[in-house]
Amino acid sequence: MIRIPEVAKRLVVGRALRSSELGQTLLPKRVALPIFASDPLSSVAYATQEVLLVLTLGGMAYVHFTPWIAAAVVALMTVVVLSYQQVVRAYPSGGGSYEVVSANLGENAGLVVGAALLVDYVMTVAVSVASGVDNIISAVPHLHAQRVPMALGFVALLAVVNLRGVRESGRAFAAPTYLFVSGVLIMIATGLFRYLVADAPVAESASYGIRPQEGDAQLTGVALVLLVLRAFSNGCTALTGVEAISNGVPAFRKPKSHNAAITLAAMGLIAVTMFVGVTTLAIVAKVHIADDACRLTGLGQDCSAYQQRTVIAQIAAAVFGGESSFGFYYIQAATALVLILAANTAFNGFPLLSSILAQRRYLPRQLHSRGDRLAFSNGIVALAVTAGLLLWGFEASVTALIHLYILGVFTSFTLSQTGMVRHWNQALSTESDPALRRRHRVARAINAVGAVFTGLVLVVVLFTKFLDGAWLAVLAAGVLWLLMRAIRMRYDRTAAELTSTDPHTDLTPPSRVLAIVLVSNVHKPTLRALAYARASKPDRLEALTVAVDHDETRALEEQWQRLGIDVPLKVLDSPYREVTRPVVDYVRSLGRESTRDMVGVYIPEYVVGRWWENLLHNQSALRIKARLRFTAGVMVISVPWQLLSSARADHHGARAPGSVRRGEPPS
């Protein structure tokens, strides 16, 4: 008989892998790049747009700041990439920023980074998917009403692919990422060539003007500085995901640190090239975009019905000859796909980080367990559910979600670079080799510059985005930090409670063992429970029944005596027809006779093969077990009796999810 749930799981997830096959899932650099760097590479699609959206709040007069802001973003990305190359070489065990900060600044600071990154990974999924849906809508505007269902569907698809394992997701996502990178580079080269031959591309919005937002027409002094800083903080979305490679070093082939550092450098070079190229073309093509279409002038139509295309869509149309050209649709399709797949960076980073935190008892232990495909399945599911709820709550709007973004990643950047400075200080204090000391000083200088720059950006981001919604990300990270501390305290208390201080005392046997067999009828399950209880050779053995119906109880006593069962049968009166309370009260009274006595309660239970049969059997047994679990000195022993339906189910190969991973043999 085919079990539909098991077959469906195998079709979706694939065959289970042995733990010894973990080495086969390690990644070469060409596959690791799209897996861990799809987020920073794909952010090219919207980073320039986010800069322009802020600058045009003051109207067209402030767009000339775009090149300077782009230069600052590029400088910052260069510093961050160089800094994280030091991290992957110094801490190749994974954990990235969390590992660095915990080792050098203390566990509490490490938890700040951990909480901030976990929140940021959720935001990465939400923003990437929402932005990808935006680009699909740019190409097919009538899909606007389906924004939220589309976003939730893409999150579910990403979760399923990642549940199949890291290597599987790499194979699935490598081609779209490389297609996007090559398409954007071709678009940049074509656009710049046209500019050099005096045939510069012109965007569809080039003829539009932009009215300043009310009160922003003449910005000077502090207001102007704030506008530029806000635009810069939005442009820093291009840096999100850079730290993912440092978290995923264990997933690389050997030499792990070397391969991770090369992949990081390649990611930085490609991302910088694309960001500079897209920003240059946006300026050359005179792309005009506003947060509200009704601030555009010269539209010639109802602004409320006008759907603005994204910056990269306008550039593609201008470079390749219009919105009906192959190049336009190629860029739109590749951009939408890679933006959605950019969330895969988080689907690799979040489970890895949550696994490390769970291993250190700051998150539930289940997050450290690998699934059938050797992926951290519970972390993948948790990320998908959380991001899905966020997309649903914010209606998959990039504008609404972007303000919650990048705060966590710059918290991670700043603290990790500060931790690396301390790491190199400690290394210099013990190193005597002049060549190594010079190398350590250079590395320390790089990390110190990185700490200063990212710290300044963190302050800017917090200041400019806090009231726009970033406070939600701060609150979420703070709550998560408190929750992780509480989980660790709970695990520590449990460990202290369970630790044996004197094995000899704890191994001392009880003074007496009292065995009680619960009886509802004299049948095979009851007789098996009596035989098993007797085989344990207790000091005292008795059967126990509750007199709910006096006629039935009298018949039970007569049958007991007629069969000559040499175990005393005790009858508990129950005037209110309860079963659970009289049994629990009686068992507890036995335990109070002596604190060194052990009471064993044997409960016959039916094993059934169909889920609905559980509704017909074992209800009283479940209630009694649930109550007795909280009684000290009482052991509850289930004595199963397999009904015919259970034998048929076993013969047909009924297996629970994860049975292969738990080592259960096939039928």
TrEMBL record:
Topology in the lipid bilayer: Multi-pass membrane protein
UniProt subcellular location: Membrane
The protein, known as: APC family permease
Membrane-spanning ranges: 65-84, 105-128, 148-166, 178-197, 217-239, 260-285, 329-353, 374-394, 400-421, 442-463, 469-487
Domain of life: Bacteria
The entry's keywords: Membrane, Transmembrane, Transmembrane helix
InterPro entries, A to Z: AA/rel_permease1, APC_K+_Transporter
Family matches, as Pfam families: AA_permease_2
Major localisation: membrane
